[in-house]
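Major facilitator superfamily (MFS) profile domain-containing protein
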Amino acid sequence: MCSRISNYHSVLCVIGGIIIQCTYGYFYTIGNMAPYILDYFQYHNKSIYDNSIMWLTSVALGMEALAMPIGGALYRKLGIRAVVIISSLIHSGGITLSYYTLKLGFIPLLITYGVMQGFGFGFGYSATIAASIAWFQNNRGLIVGLIVGGFGAGPIIFTSIQTTYINPNNIKIDDKTKRFVDADLLNRVPSVFLLIGGVLLVIQITGLYLMRDKQKKAIVLLTNHDFKDPDKSHEFPPVIKSLGCEASSVNLRPLELLKQKEFYFLWIIIFCAGIPLTSLATLFKLFGKTHINDDRFLAIMGVVAAVFNSVGRAFWGAISDRISFKVPLCIIFLCWSLLLTSFPHLPLIFGPQIKVGFGIWLCGLYLLISGVLVYAPTATETLFGPINMAVNYGLVFNAFVFGGLFVSLLSILIPQFHEWDNLFYLCAAMCILALLIVPWIHDRKMPKYFSLFRFYRQSHS
């Protein structure tokens, strides 16, 4: 009976985690909202550079990285529900308040839509992952993929709500200025934040009800059941041992983490990934509308890309349970660099069929993004252990922040990066740099038949 109840709670916790992460995934709709926000400012004589909109993404990521270790530490003391309550109030509250700050200017909007939104979902991000994988110790990669898949699914819901509410008649942009100029459309932009804020809060209350912590007593019972020999309680699952991987019971504290070279390798890799992630998440629709005058199509492609982002996370998570993170990351960065290099040349490649090319490339790019966002926490847990994973991942994740801030500053300070070609070439170069660093990481769970990917000196103890 206890086992059945435990299984019931474990499934509900994962479902709750997916639901909560789905609301956090509203973050990915910044790219869909960017043209509306920029054109609203332009209409009300508050012009800003188009690339300045990347600050919304960069600041949100920055606050996420700041909040993540705080939320992780509080989770270990007060449990998952306390963390989710605080997270939800800040997150949905910031988006709701954007109704007022949008009318005041870009900086006030940056505070609510960037600072508050980012801190809100960052506060609960790693805690919901940690609370969910605690119930499924032998399928961590898959569970991480499912949970963060919820994050990727967020835009599927909220992009449709935004576009249907703001531009229900698919009004075209002005052919000369490439901006929306319809007054009714632009006047609906502020009120969409009230609608979204209310929807988010209702969904978050549902997820909160489903999530619960795994009690220590239950963990002991599970361990005794799965590993009947107490001397082997730190063994890896059979699938890991059958592939010839190295066993490890590493569990590093945050201060110990900073002494590991793998931490800095991983940090640089995530920094590099943060540059294309920030650029694509914010600017895909702005880039698309320079060649495609169809707002509804671009919104639909944002939804389809979000599906690839969401499903891709479960896909990459399942792969990590078989071969860990190192080999897939190499493949991801190689493919990412090729797609980014060719992305600005789609009009030349596809000509009149630009919509087809844009859709294929965007979905491919988001499928690869999903892999990076799965393997960042998976690599953190593999390299540094599961016990302090929530806090440790917060330290690793701040690399995304610096990557986003870096590309945001470049886009303002260097005029050449106002051009799409140069921006996407920079993103591709960062992927190549990451590709060169990944093989130097010591992935203990990687099957030994992938020896080609081992650039470090193997130690024997």
